[in-house]
Design a protein that fits this description.
CATH class: Alpha Beta
CATH topology: Beta Polymerase, domain 2
Order of helices and strands: HEEHEEEHHEEEH
CATH superfamily: Beta Polymerase, domain 2
Helix content: 25-40%
Radius of gyration: 14 Å
Distance between the termini: 15 Å
Mean pLDDT: 83
Number of strands: 8
Structural class: alpha+beta
Shape: globular
Number of domains: 1
Strand order of the largest sheet: 3-4-5-2-1-6
Strand content: 15-25%
CATH architecture: 2-Layer Sandwich
Low-confidence stretches: 1-15
Largest sheet: 6 strands, mixed
């Protein structure tokens, strides 16, 4: 029995149940999320491969820190816009945009967390999911490359 959750169809409304799409866009979606975060100058971008931890919650968490409420909202909005434009993916559920201390964009197999520094330190997802493969993403000139999301790595997991 697979522990991966189904990907959300982009035609579903946010109140309907997620459904599996024909192909696995998960690594591409996670890479798109990382790119959008890097372009908005998010700090401490980290990818957690939860498949290695026997998760079932999602395949990947992509976590980043914003320096202000405004930047946190901008990062989350950029992720939503890029995922929809590039991959026709929309989040199944969004939480936290109003207060912008911790915004969650749930794409089912990829869950995006954009934190304030204080909330990120408090919840410490990297420690909580310590059994996951974790990669801290170096960003150079607004671009990032994530080893965990490379096609040969992603397909072998």
């Amino acid at each position: 029995m697979s522990t991966a959750r189904p990907a959300r169809s982009s035609s579903s409304s946010s109140s309907s149940s997620p459904v599996r799409t024909g192909t696995d866009p998960t690594p591409r979606l996670a890479a798109c999320v990382v790119d959008a975060m890097a372009e908005r100058k998010a700090a401490d971008i980290t990818v957690l491969d939860l498949r290695a931890a026997g998760g079932g919650v999602a395949d990947f968490f992509v976590v980043a820190t914003g320096s202000s409420d405004r930047q946190i909202r901008a990062i989350a909005s950029a992720v939503e816009e890029d995922a929809e434009e590039r991959l026709e993916e929309t989040p199944w559920h969004v939480e936290g945009k109003e207060h912008a201390r911790w915004v969650v964009l749930d794409y089912v197999n990829v869950v995006v967390h954009v934190f304030s520094r204080e909330k990120r330190e408090y919840y410490d997802l990297e420690r909580l999911w310590g059994d996951a493969d974790i990669e801290h993403v170096p960003v150079e000139d607004g671009t990032a490359a994530v080893e965990l999301l490379q096609p040969e790595r992603a397909s072998s997991s």
